[in-house]
Amino acid sequence: MATPVASRRVSAPTTTPDISDGVRHVSLRSGVYADSVRLMQVSRDAGSGDGVTAVLVAMATPLNLELAASMGLAPDGDASPEQLLIAVRARDDEALAAALAAVEAALAHRERSTGTAGAVPVRTVGAALDDAAPDASVLAVVSVPGPYAVAEALDAVAAGRSVLVFSDGVPVEHEVGLKQAARRAGVLVMGPDCGTAIVSGVALGFANVVRPGPVGLVAASGTGAQQVSCLLDAAGVGVSHVLGVGGRDLSAAVGGLATLDALAALDADPATERVLLVSKPPAPSVAEAVAEAAAGLATPVRSAVLSADSPDLTAAVEALLGDLGVDVPAWPSRPGQGTAAPGAVLKGFYSGGTLADEAMLLAAATLGDVRSNTPLRPELDPALDWGTDHAARGHVVVDFGDDALTVGRAHPMIDPALRLEAVAGLAASGEPAVLLLDVVLGHGADPDPSVTLVPVLSGAPFPVVVALVGTEADPQCWSRQADALAGAGAAVFASNAAATRHALTLLGAAS
Amino acid sequence: MTPVTGPLGGLLAAPPQVVAAGVGVFSDALRTQGVSVTDVEWRPPTLGDADDLTVLALDPRRATANRTAVERVLAAGSVLTDVLPAREVLDLPERTLLHSGPPLSWETASGPMRGAFIGACLFEGWADDAAAAERMLAAGEVAFDPCHHHRTVGPMAGVVSPSMWMWCLEDPVHGGRAFSSLNEGLGKVLRMGAYSAEVVDRLHWMTRTLGPVLQRAVRSRAEDPLDVKGVLAQMLQMGDEGHNRNRAGSLMTLRELSPAIVEVDAPASDIGAVLRFIGGNEHFFLNLGMPTAKLAMDAARDVPGSTMVTVLARNGTEFGIQTAGTGGRWFTGPAQTPVGLFLGDYGPDDANPDIGDSAIMETYGVGGFSMAAAPAIVRFVGGTVPDALATTERMYQITLAENPAMAIPVLGFRGAPTGIDVVAVARTGWLPQINTGMAGRVAGTGQVGAGLVQPPPECFTGALAALAAAARAAAV
């Protein structure tokens, strides 16, 4: 305790060239304390570097100051015992810098607890990331309820890690704040409401097992990205990464913050030779910014923007295959049974929002506007409230993955109950129909969707057309599911556009 | 740290490991792919508004402000510079008594607080007996003010009257000052609400003998003042946590001060009495540890945007907290009754709700936060050694930094969890863990036990809302 209290002035570090004896650095730092044993270890670690001739890292007690003076490393000005003395002599500037970096690293080294690991649960993403190795590639995945998702995601951003936010229900102004923070930190926020990503072969959320390859996807649409990556896989073309950005990223409010960062990252990625941007029509101002950014990249960028002018994701994939000089294959399919009764209407029961949109866009040419809980033109067509009007007659396309239908229940790719009930209800209603379904395979999805679908479809009094989005390598296996569904009489298509057109053909034949 | 290379922090450079919070099905899908997954055991926050939490998480000022605040806490020092009567160092109007915790009135004061007020009136000679003192206090003839409003901290009732001698400490780094009364020992003592003749006589002896002797001893070391922070750091290496166990710290203080005490020109009987008093009081150091923590927390006052707690304090009726981002504003809730062990025949019904400024120790990261350092007392406060380790581990998740000066041996010399973050408390649902003494509910009883207690959630809900309101205003 007998410590003289002198001036607390912190002396500026001095790095003095010394012709006879290399260079030296002496500084005093306040607010840093470590016990003497620890500091001995720090000194020893830093002193073991090549070209380092002397290191003293110690509290500036009179004894240690005397020692420093005897080493020719006394600090200028007054020192107090609460200050940490860092004194290094080295052969040259390079060795000195290395030694100082080693001192910093050793001082920053955090002692790990012993003997209690696992005793206390980790409650936040931040606490979990504290335990992650600093040099590891770590990504956070957040699927907590929307009101709490931003706080968890920001933990990742603050730790310099990218994050996928599956959660929906995040206010758009918070999405903007989150993505601005991510840009400042130089990391990517995929989402909110991002269901699909593949990073270096690791499938996050709902994603398919696709072969590695040269195409990088930036996707504002999860099922759109799944459709595209599965068709590419079927054509023998793999993907490098699928970077989801969330359905609102290309809105005027968000301004494509994540899309622009994802495009730049894929451009710099050696594994990516082509980029495909999958989205619904962006806000015009954002479309311009994205187009401008894409034009500035070394990697060619093609867009698969789903709109009335370009209603077909399969066509976009075929165009990309053309760019790559790859022949377009015959997309996998299975023939179905049954014909549509006179006056039949289209009933599209979808789990994927983008796939539902694609079906409605393709159907619009022959059927006009289709009633939906997620109508293409809400300004003309009040949304169908499926919760109260699930026996709506006429042409109807329902997105069972819409937020309003997933409150308090799992996504229909995981929990098929609501949609199965709708199919049974349609059968019981006696309304003549053609039923169009999507079944999305891959990680995260129902492990065997045909098990619950086949019994319902087998007895259906109307023809059934299935868009089966998946690959042979998916855990559910595309052809096994296709055979089971075809066995129940359904026509099965790997392409949602092909499935929709087949359904329209069945309707046309009936009219 | 190896720098991560490539755009987006090297996101695309290698297959990632994943930290996952939320739905288990995604973690399962990742594990089937052979990916290393760390699951966060996320729970919906149990206090605070979700939008407030998000606004604070998004506040661009917060990270820097919290770093500034906690670095000031870590950098603060504490040396013992003087011992003086309260009236000479504190801005204390006539007929004013200081007390622990947030503001209160005679009507809302609990039993032990009233007892301490009565005892102080008797000690100051403002009243001849307890009944007269009570009448005087009830009539509003004595003003009350929180210690914290006067750079002062007081254990338990924390009552300070003008004639009491105060430790005067200084932070040589930031230049702050802080004060605390001299510790009276255990059992029937004013701070526990006792006011019998034995209590008042002891206070008179402290004023007549202990204070002046300590003043001369401390002043004789003006060139070499006691480094109180250094003592606190060493205590944690010796089985103390600095709140409910101060045994090693008190002995070190005795060792440091006794040569100077012996050299004071006073009758040998007085010197002997002073040394016996200090040596017989295992909590003698507490009143030096508390202003040391107070100096550090005051150094972090008034940092706009910071969500760090600067005060945890209880007055026996209410628990109050302050934060670096909201200045001197109190956020209060009803004080809880500690859970623990009782002396003699006393039981839970005899215990008063939580009382004292001593939770400044937890605010600083020691006390209950460093419970892992003090296995010797875990049973005294009704816990087990694994509980103690788990408590400290939990506190790391609600604090901003680890204090390298306050190393916890059993945790591999990891620094004490320091700087409570209101946002982290809300997100984890883990309230700060406080080690505390228990005063008797009835005025005049004294200490009845010791145990563990937490702040009421209302303090944090209120602070969170105010901090979020400030963040929204700053964003406009």
From TrEMBL, chain A:
Residues covered by the ATP-citrate synthase/succinyl-CoA ligase C-terminal domain: 350-504
Origin: domain of life: Bacteria
Classification via InterPro entries: NAD(P)-bd_dom_sf (IPR036291), SUCC_ACL_C (IPR005811), Succinyl-CoA_synth-like (IPR016102)
SUPFAM superfamilies for the chain: NAD(P)-binding Rossmann-fold domains, Succinyl-CoA synthetase domains
GO cellular-component term (any): succinate-CoA ligase complex (ADP-forming)
Molecular-function GO term, any one: succinate-CoA ligase (ADP-forming) activity
Gene3D superfamilies: NAD(P)-binding Rossmann-like Domain, Succinyl-CoA synthetase domains
Pfam families the UniProt entry points to: Ligase_CoA
Gene Ontology biological process terms from the UniProt entry: tricarboxylic acid cycle
UniProt protein name: FdrA family protein
